[in-house]
Known about the structure:
By secondary structure, the chain is α/β, with parallel strands linked by helices. It has one domain (4-150): SPOUT methyltransferase, trefoil knot domain (Alpha/beta knot), CATH 3.40.1280.10. It has helices at 15-27, 45-60, 79-92, 107-112, 126-145; strands at residues 4-9, 33-38, 66-75, 95-99, 115-117. A 5-stranded parallel β-sheet has the order 2-1-4-3-5, sandwiched between helices. Helix 1 links the parallel strand 1 (4-9) and strand 2. Helix 1 packs parallel to helix 5 (126-145) and helix 3 (79-92) packs across helix 5.
Amino acid sequence: MKDLHLIVVGKLGDKNIEELERDYFKRLTSPKLTIHEVRAHSENLSKEAKEVTTKINELSKDENPYVVLLAENGKQFTSVNFSKWLFTLCETQRVIFVIGGAAGHGQEVIDRSQFRLSLSELTYPHKLARLLFVEQVYRAQTIKIGHPYNK
């Protein structure tokens, strides 16, 4: 199983959310999830896209990764279906998720992506979207192994 990566434009910078995120990371065993923060550029989509693309290239390791954008207009899943989808993907390929900056995703990143995922029809602050994503990866793990967390 391949590790998962989450690229986030900007830093979290909230001690309370960081603590919650750490709690999920302690519980998350498989797949391994790594968060990579890249510099925000005051909503300059072109500069932010270059930062994200550079990080994608670093993580690719001579593979063609499956790049998933977290976007409000993406596909929505139930937690059970997200778990199935996620584990099917990471069995065979490197998966990189991207949370863009406040202005969204730059065109270079959009062109590089293969899929768009939405956490909800609601719009969340990026800090909460990041936490929700980490929690959903943990939930996906518990669903796969039959742990009662999802009940």
